[in-house]
Amino acid sequence: MSTAAATHEHHGPATGIKRWLFTTNHKDIGTLYLLFSLLMFLTGGAMAMVIRAELFQPGLQLVDPHFFNQMTTVHGLIMVFGAVMPAFTGLANWMIPMMIGAPDMALPRMNNWSFWILPFAFAILLMSLFMDGGGPAFGWTFYAPLSTTYSNDNTALFVFAIHIMGISSIMGAINVIVTIVNLRAPGMKWMKLPLFVWTWLITAFLLIAVMPVLAGAVTMVLTDKYFGTDFFNAAGGGDPVMFQHIFWFFGHPEVYIMILPAFGIISTIVPTFSRKKLFGYSSMVYATASIALLSFVVWAHHMFTTGMPLAGELFFMYSTMLISVPTGVKVFNWVATMWRGSISFEAPMMFAIAFIVLFTLGGFSGLMLAITPVDFQYHDTYFVVAHFHYVLVTGAVFSIMAAAYYWLPKWTGHMYNTRLAKWHFWMSLISVNVLFFPMHFVGLAGMPRRIPDYALQFADFNAIISIGGFAFGLSQLLFVAVVFKCIKAGEKAPAKVWDGAEGLEWQVASPAPYHTFETPPEVK
Amino acid sequence: MSEEYQKYYVPAQSPWPIVGAVALFFIAAGAGLTVMQMEQESSHGHYLLFAGIAVLLYMLVGWFRNVISESHGGLYSMQMDRSFRQGMSWFIFSEVMFFAAFFGALFYARMLAVPWLGGDGNNVMTGEVLWPEFTSAWPLENTPDGTSTQAMGWQGLPLINTIILLVSSVTLQFAHTAIEKDKRTPLTLFLLLTIVLGICFLGLQAYEYVHAYQDLGLKLDSGIYGNTFFLLTGFHGLHVTLGTIMLIVVWIRVLKGHFSSEKYFAFQAAAWYWHFVDVVWLCLFVFVYVL
Questions:
Q1: Does residue A505 have an active-site annotation?
Q2: Which pLDDT belongs to residue B97?
Q3: Mutation choice for B interface testing from A17, A27, A114, A117 by most B CBs within 10 A
Q4: Contact, B94 vs A211, CB < 8 A?
Q5: What backbone phi and psi angles, to 5 degrees, belong to A492?
Q6: Which of A27, A52, A75, A389 is catalytic?
Q7: Could you give the residue ranges of the DSSP H alpha helices within A371-417?
Q8: Chain A contacts of B102, Cβ < 8 Å?
Q9: Of A225, A252, A387, A440, which one is the catalytic site residue?
């Protein structure tokens, strides 16, 4: 046939912009995802800087409250859907085919489609910020009636942007699952899969299960706002609390979507730099699966104060606390892996250790929030903000940094500036705690979240928090510097960059050739 | 199992994904603007929306043309076929979850929200203070704010539609048996019959909507009963439309002599999709119409 069978044999990268627009290569697409995620991380970060600048002092100084609301909303949306999720998808694209000995992702063209939807989706979302009436200002959780009765007229753009982001995520997740199920090299049995692959398999399942529910939720918001339906309006027989149930049925698995791949990364890095096998491999797999399954029955712990029958409050309290068991298994296993290992402290390992400590801290505050009666005090305060930033920044984001420092030499073929990377680590570690730790205190003292002003007694802590915030923001510029210097030049990296590393990705050259494993390797 | 590890086809560069992304951009921005401009006199959003749909159709035709010619060129192994099948199964699973959101809303409204508004549980004062006249019932024909409507019965049209869809699943199964045995004539006929039944269903559904709006006063905005009724049946109708289009494309390909008794992924995918919309209808029939 005319679809020249000969040319597809050894097509190298095309040149110029066409390479990136038309590519079907998992490494190109992985790079696109990662760079897009970095851009979004900086954009969302800039919005966080606006928030912290406004909160530096009590009173209203820099921005008006409506714009402040848009900043908190779009910061959340960008960090969740634009920074963390695409970063993990980028890592999945780069690493999963190499880790399982596959020639590429299972559906390479669809893979490119999944990526290119994202810049357009965020263009729509960001566009609305500059229109009359402004962007979404109802919080990233877009609770009804804030998003229906009280939202501005541009809400339809938010709804359709979320729709196409969802399409992108679902297609990406289908690709990941099919690749893992169908494209493993001979001998790559299920219980030999690297944990990053396992965690992503389960994450992809969660994505396919809950992104459509989010699509349903935004659709109901759309019809409530523009077409006269009453899903979330008691006057028509609906219920605003129903919005929260539907949203959090998506939302809680979503937070595990943002942390399970991080577990996989940490489970890859800790054994490498401890020079030991991962402790309790199969219990890690089962713990991941348990967390994923439990994530479907805990959603209403986000709504203890919104009104639920007592039996519901108790059920969701206990099921939530149950999640700490498999999570505890994981933390135990990481620590046990390090126990009596010959540990060295390279940049990826430093981020991984910081992850273990600080993520656990975020887990503990989560456990506090899970207890219904005390949640009545913590609900919608800065304590909640502290909690989810510990699990998402020092959790998910730190794991992404760790992964970048772990695999950058494999991607670029160059060793990065390790001194600069360590500076980045220490600056981030100190500033992130200055930023988020005091939020526990102001939260316990009753400072509400999402408000541009606050009572005078919170002034000192907020000044400290803002200083930590600016320092953390500036520290990330070091990361940008390390990455781009590493792409351009650097000491030549060997195939096996870290002496304790295991896995198929270290058997190919650095930088990894454009096509790897066109004939599957034999896994012993 | 030597075929198991025959070379997996990785396509060279393709323009279709970026075309598809641009199409979705136009559709999303266009749909958003269209909705926002509904009450204005001059609107332009729908031009963008239609342009997006046109680009999407162009993309689908081009993309599938490539895939079909690659398949006919013998570039696809059985492993590739499995990738397609698994991909389609997971896509259908995502569709199941999309409907689950609306069924969830239906169950929540009728089991919890409406009874609570009527004073159930510990909500006696809610009813007394807000809407003392309101009594809880399902189907909710009189909403708390006084909108009233009539419920859609399940006898008559809905029952006929149920039978039509059930029969269409059976005829499609006959077509499936025919393709496995490579009997082209029964395959063509049964497939055509399935398509005709699908179109009948859609026609009757449209008629039912007219009946609901004109005779029953049952509208999209007549409270939670009308909301769930129209969104569930409406999204189902959209999926039947999509399924019918898929079956028509497959039918044309059958006429052109595509597919063999071993390789018929497109047929299989369309058939799975059709059975899926059938099952969704059965749930709809039970929970929206009968109960």
A1: no
A2: 98
A3: A117
A4: yes
A5: -65, 130
A6: A75
A7: 372-378, 382-391, 398-412
A8: 216, 220
A9: A252
3 state SS for A85-128:
HHHHHHHHHHHHHHHHCCCCCCCHHHHHHHHHHHHHHHHHHHHH
**Tens digits of per-residue pLDDT, B53-62?**
999 999 999 9
Phi-psi region of A344 (alpha: psi -120 to 50; beta: other; left: phi over 0): beta
Residues A49-72 have pLDDT tens digits of 999 999 999 999 999 999 999 999
Rounded distance, CA B95 to CA B146, Å? 35
Nearest CA-CA partner of B92 in B246, B256, B210: B246
Residue A169 appears among annotated catalytic residues: yes
Residue A202 corresponds to which amino acid?
I
Rg (alpha carbons) of chain A, rounded to whole number: 23
Question: Is residue B6 over pLDDT 80?
Answer: no
Both structure tokens of A237 = 């027989």
Active-site residue A66, yes or no? no
Per residue in B34-48, pLDDT tens? 999 998 888 889 999
Which letter does DSSP use for residue B7 in this model? P
Least CB-CB distance to A178: which of B83, B97, B145?
B83
- Report the residue count for chain A: 524
> Is residue B84 scored above 50 in pLDDT?
yes
Contact A1 B108 (CB under 8 A): no
Q: How far apart are CA A324 and CA A368, in angstroms?
A: 11
A485 is catalytic: no
Tokens of A304: 């203890």
A503 close to A99: Cβ distance less than 8 angstroms: yes
Q: Which residue has the tokens 């048996």?
A: B177
Judge: A236–B147 Cβ closer than 8 Å, yes or no.
yes
Catalytic, out of A143, A198, A200, A256: A256
Closest C-alpha to A274, from A333, A198, A325, A328: A333
The residue type found at A28 is D
Task: Tell me: cis bond preceding B139? Omega within 30 of 0 counts.
Answer: yes
Which of B7, B90, B109 is opposite residue A237, by nearest beta carbon? B109
Chain length of chain B: 291
Number of A:B CB contacts under 8 A? 252
What is the distance in angstroms between the CA of the first residue and the CA of the last residue of chain A? Answer: 38
What is the pLDDT at residue A466?
A: 98
Contact A223 B32 (CB under 8 A): no
Alpha-carbon B103 to chain mean position: 14
Q: Residues 151..190 of A with a Cβ closer than 8 Å to B: which?
A: 153-154, 156-157, 159-161, 163-164, 167, 170, 173-175, 177-178, 181-183, 186
- Inter-residue contact A100 to A188 (CB < 8 Å): yes
Residues of A whose CB is below 8 A from B83: 106-107, 178, 182-183
Position of tokens 């007694």?
Answer: A457
Residue with tokens 């991962």: A278
Q: Which residues of chain A have pLDDT under 70?
A: 1-11
A414 is catalytic: no
Is residue B161 pLDDT above 80, yes or no?
yes
Which helix (DSSP H) or strand (DSSP E) does residue A460 occupy? helix A459-488
